[in-house]
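Hi support team,

I submitted a single chain yesterday and got back a structure, but I'm not sure I'm reading the token output correctly. Could someone confirm the output below corresponds to the sequence I sent? I've pasted both exactly as they appear in my results page.

Thanks,
R.
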Amino acid sequence: MLRYEHIEYLNLLLGVPILILAMLLYSKWKKNALSLFGDTRMVNELMHSFSSSRYKIKNTLTISTFILLIIGIANPQIGTKMEEVKREGVDLMIAIDLSNSMMAEDIKPNRLERAKQAISKLIDNLEGDRIGLIVFAGEAYVQLPITTDYSAAKLFLSNVNTNIVPTQGTKIGKAIELSMQSFDMENGQNKAIIIITDGENHDENAIESAKQANEVGIFVHTLGMGLSKGGPIPIYNQYGAQISYRKDKEGKTVVSKLNENLLIKIADAGNGTYVRANNSKSGLPTLFAEINKMEKKEIGTMIFTEYKDRFQLFIGLAILVLILELILLPRRNKWSNRINLYKNS
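Hi R., thanks for writing in. Yes, this is the structure output for that exact sequence:
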């Protein structure tokens, strides 16, 4: 089994597209700058020793070095010994609403970011419990299957945003049904679902789904994100800057309000607890206290207990590729120059 000791550093790989874009822009700028000296054909003849293919290879090597260093810093580890480990805990599925209304800023910085911060703190307090993540809007999707790998849970959580769901809406019922399907109902563990949403769209199926979950022994808790006064839903451009607010067909700014009545009914149907978040408290500690009251049963799990570091391999490769990049010159050697001059003569 492969794992990363510092999996959070893999987020730095998001810088690879930025690095590639910077290289392309620099290459374009240099080309435009050279064109100012005169005719492009004449400039190319004066710079006959320059090799564009070698320049591209050097850039590829630079990018490869960057990627290898990041993987090395994250420290890949290979499992070498597997043992059965006894643990006590509950199985917990967290379903996060990713509808556009979760971007409302009545709770700072916005409803979704506030929810993610609270979940991250919750994960830090887990001991022996298993956790999974469901994301939903018009449909529900498994973001992370139920696991005890808390580092992976935080990594998947960090990538949650409203753009990863293709259809909008607030189908809480589908989130509950998918959460139920994600549990191992044979392991004897107590189970709970936490629905984090503003409940803006009225979903009667959610109440029925919560009842069905309760019938099979699964508690359904709800966490309401939003204030009673509500807030407008911002619209951002491709650079992340706010440009406007969502409007209805009549051109009026849409104000998203918390549907508290629905979330209370869902929690009642699921034999759970409803808590509302605000700017002073997230509400999750209250729900976690309720979950801790549940009986935690012992279960044996086969896991890898010994791992060997493999960062040396990637750091070594990064150094090797870096040396190759430094050795490789962006100009042709003398034999290539002679052949090129002969072709042009």
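A quick pointer for reading it: Residues 2-75+310-344 form one domain. Let us know if anything else looks off.

Best,
Support desk
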